[in-house]
Amino acid sequence: MTKIIAHYDAYKKSMETTVKGILPEGVELESTVFYPGGGGQPSDTGTIKFDNTVLPIHGVKRIGGQLIHLTEGSELKAGQIIEGVIDWERRYQLMRTHTALHILCGVIWRDFGVQVTGGNMKALAARMDFELPEMSADFATAVQKAIDIEVALEREIKVKFLPRDEAFKIPDLIRTKINLLPPNIQEVRIVEIVGLDIQADGGTHVSNTCEIGQIKIVGHESKGKGNKRLRISVEDLTN
Fold it and tell me: End of a domain among 86, 121, 141?
């Protein structure tokens, strides 16, 4: 099984590792700094380097239980040492965006007590759906004010791993209406925005809310009875 370094260190940009296997779609590595995708967050892109060759990595995909780095890998061989380098600018934008969604989710859970029914993201833009009977412009304004406060408080963000039984002693650990955590997962990755939010989550995050920049609610809409959507953008802070 490929060791996913991104689960432990979201700020690591490159690594040296060994090619484990070759598939028509790409290569399997012993370890990787590439986030494989999940929870609405896309997989990383970047390059792998060996000898005098640089190959693009277009993404990461699970194929037959293997974590495959998608590339034209005909020149690679099992056992070969390579350097993997992620597209850091894109990754960091995704880290900021994913943490912004946790702030949004944390504020709405704290202030309104409703669960998440869906979500998705790309770099610096995302949407999240909530189990709400209605959503008004006033609601969006109130949430915006609460989000601004949380970013300004410069809350620390911590990641830890807990045995499944211990993790599920944490109240409201799963914020989605449907528990998407597979029953075979016996060690749960926990992401905590200290003082605001704690959830089971596999994605990459910044280490402090001040790194996010400015979160803007840019749209709200109904997606059916009891299902309402907020759209956000993430922008650099302006002086």
Answer: 86
Q: Are residues 153 and 104 in the same domain?
A: yes
pTM above 0.90, yes or no: yes
Instruction: Output the domain CATH number for residue 202.
Output: 3.30.980.10
Domain residues for 78? 3-86
Give the count of domains, the chain.
2
Contact predicate 148/104, CB 8 Å: no
Residues 46 and 125 in one domain: no
Q: What is the sign, positive or negative, of the torsion defined by CA atoms of 233, 234, 236, 239?
A: positive
Q: Which helix (H) or strand (E) holds 50?
A: strand 46-50
Residues 165 and 162: their CA atoms lie apart, in Å, by 8
Is residue 199 within 8 Å of 191, Cβ to Cβ? yes
d(C-alpha 64, C-alpha 27), whole Å: 13
153 and 203 within one domain: yes
Q: Strand pairing partners for 199? A: 191
* Pairing relationship of beta strands 31-32 and 60-63 according to DSSP bridges: unpaired
At 130, the amino acid letter reads F
Confidence of residue 19 (pLDDT cuts 50, 70, 90): very high
- Rounded to an integer, what distance in angstroms lies between the CA atom of residue 158 and that of residue 155? 10
The pLDDT assigned to 222 comes to 87
